[in-house]
Amino acid sequence: MSQRVWRLLKPGGILVLSIPVKKVGHDEYRGKNIYGLEGIPSSANRGHFFQRYYDEVGLRTRILDRLTDGRIVSQQTWGERKAGWFEEYERQWMVRGAGITCLDPILMMRNLRGFSDIKDLVGVGVECLAVRKSVEKAV
Q: Residue 80: in which H helix or E strand, if any?
């Protein structure tokens, strides 16, 4: 989680995160700079960074363990009902543009379901977190 965003959050405030997850985490690269971010170099053999999928260990070590002055108030794992749906959704997003995201709530309700754990996912998922920043500064 960005330390910059966390610093801006008022004590007692809640930060809501949705984090891409899979059974086996990895970084995803694309041949094209999808986000159009200037100054971010591409990897010669992998292309442009697109997104990171976290597995259970990565989520814990890179995000959850770093919440030294915060408390998780809600954590839920959501994932594809049928593996491959999200990949098709991304293809449509690339073709049709960001406007398709207006349908996200409906598409997510139809194509995702709750899972008890990341290791139970059948494909791509998202970890939904709500974290309350402590009122008192951590020591």
A: strand 70-80
Burial of 20 per CB tally in 10 Å (0-12, 13-18, 19+):
middle
Q: What is the pLDDT of residues 68-93, one digit of tens each?
A: 888 999 999 999 999 999 999 888 88
- Give the span between the Cα atoms of 80 and 21, in whole angstroms: 11
Task: Render pLDDT for 92-107 as a digit per residue (tens, 0 to 9).
Answer: 887 887 777 888 889 9
Cα 134 from chain centre: 23
Q: Residue type for 115, please?
A: F
User: How do beta strands 125-133 and 14-21 pair?
Assistant: antiparallel
What is the residue whose two structure tokens read 């974290």?
131
Q: Which two tokens stand for residue 16?
A: 């809501």
Distances in Å between the Cα of 33 and the Cα atoms of 14, 39, 98, 104 are 32, 11, 15, 23
Cβ atoms of 84 and 124 within 8 Å: the answer is no
Q: CA 86, 125, 77, 130 torsion: positive or negative?
A: negative
pTM tops 0.85: no
